[in-house]
Amino acid sequence: MIWHQKEISLAAKGRGFHLVTDEILKHIPEIKKIKIGTAHIFIKHTSASLAINENADPSVRIDLETHFNKIIPEDMPYYQHNTEGSDDMPAHIKSVVIGSSLLIPITNGRLNLGTWQGIYLCEHRDYGGQRKIVITISGE
Amino acid sequence: MIWHQKEISLAAKGRGFHLVTDEILKHIPEIKKIKIGTAHIFIKHTSASLAINENADPSVRIDLETHFNKIIPEDMPYYQHNTEGSDDMPAHIKSVVIGSSLLIPITNGRLNLGTWQGIYLCEHRDYGGQRKIVITISGE
Amino acid sequence: MIWHQKEISLAAKGRGFHLVTDEILKHIPEIKKIKIGTAHIFIKHTSASLAINENADPSVRIDLETHFNKIIPEDMPYYQHNTEGSDDMPAHIKSVVIGSSLLIPITNGRLNLGTWQGIYLCEHRDYGGQRKIVITISGE
């Protein structure tokens, strides 16, 4: 039985959906030792989130940003939490909708993702800065 | 390797988003024994959900309730599932959007949450009653 | 400590929300050996998702499909990713909103779901075909 945990920082990114599969994988070479297991990826913030989606055509990531801004807009008159900037309350809502963590199977030393799947950092603030991530891999 | 599981009931709460980090933690003192691991928190209901978000300013929780009611309203004319009250079908949709479980890293005997992160019980019914939760912690 | 992992295919289903609890359970008889643990169910696609919701009244699943089509419609003029059919970009957004995996507690050899909870395959494409799922169960 193997447990391995590491806290990392992802480099600051602009608002939007970003493919970070490789930026995450480079921190967990220990994954190679696991034949069957899972990788847990957790973001320690309430205004950014993690998702899995299309790893090829970047237009998917652009459309995700556009559509999330339509259904969770800035400056709605009923927002009471509005002292931290127009982008702040929508960021909290998007984070609740998309989620703060991912759990991905590990098979034969690799993340067992589908052909078209990649890991997204979803940055919901205009200037979110670095984002802290805790990666926990376990298996045998 | 440690596995520990407990089924608990969270006290009945009004419709809305509620911070329950402490109400959950008091049931799992065993977490102190785990250096590296994960805590899984699962809600056994289809009209309430679990999320992680802002643990300080309560206006975030109010705005979440308001905005979810905007995008997932009651009494839409196309709802076919409408015999259990106006709040029932929206509750099912919100539960699918937000999710039924959380997985949080454990580090050195504590939940490794970010500074501003807390655990929310998202109660989508007007009178949901007590909510059953299964907590499973594992690690070494 | 038990780890068991299996990759399966769920039979092709029409667009909509489908109850697949039994179709999944029949592939993991090994669950009976686990007293305390978790079952991880992961879909290897970016245009279908997994959720937990109402296992009885099928009108809930119909309303979910209807409402998700309202808040994430086809053919929005701002979609740039539109070469794979009108149902494709909405499928990616729905997948990000609903999520690609589930983690369910195992207790005394069974999934510890609530009375009304079942596992949904959420098929967001008109003709999505078979869907590959990785099931990982662990526990003691």
Structure description:
With about 140 residues, chain A is α+β, with helices and mostly antiparallel strands. Chain A has three helices and eight strands; from the N terminus they run E-E-H-E-E-H-H-E-E-E-E. Chain A has a single domain, classed as YjbQ-like (Jelly Rolls, Sandwich), CATH 2.60.120.460. Chain A has helices at about 20-25, 60-70, 90-100; strands spanning about 1-10, 15-20, 35-45, 50-55, 100-105, 110, 115-125, 130-140. The first copy, chain A, has a five-stranded antiparallel β-sheet with strand order 1-8-3-5-6, with no helix packed on it. A three-stranded antiparallel β-sheet of chain A has the order 2-7-4. Chain A is elongated and about 50 Å long. Chain A starts with a strand and ends with a strand. The mean pLDDT of chain A is about 100.
User: What's the CATH architecture name of chain A?
Assistant: Sandwich
- Beta-strand portion of chain A reads 35-45%
Q: Supply the CATH superfamily name of chain A.
A: YjbQ-like
CATH topology of chain A: Jelly Rolls
Q: Summarize the largest interface: chains and residue counts.
A: A-B, 32 and 38 residues
Distance, first to last CA of chain A: 5 Å
In DSSP terms (H or I, runs of 4 or more residues), the helix count of chain A works out at 3
User: CATH class of chain A, anyone?
Assistant: Mainly Beta
**Total individual domains of chain A:** 1
The low-confidence runs of chain A, each spanning 5 or more residues with pLDDT under 50, are none
Which class best fits the helix and strand makeup of chain A?
Answer: alpha+beta
Outline the biggest β-sheet of chain A: 5 strands, antiparallel
Report the average pLDDT across residues of chain A. Answer: 98
- Oligomerization state of this entry? homotrimer
**What Rg of chain A, in angstroms, do the CA atoms define?**
16 Å
Helix content of chain A: 10-25%
- Strand and helix order of chain A: EEHEEHHEEEE
- How are the strands of the biggest sheet of chain A laid out side by side? 1-8-3-5-6
Overall strand count of chain A: 8
Query: Outline of chain A, from the CA principal axes?
Result: elongated
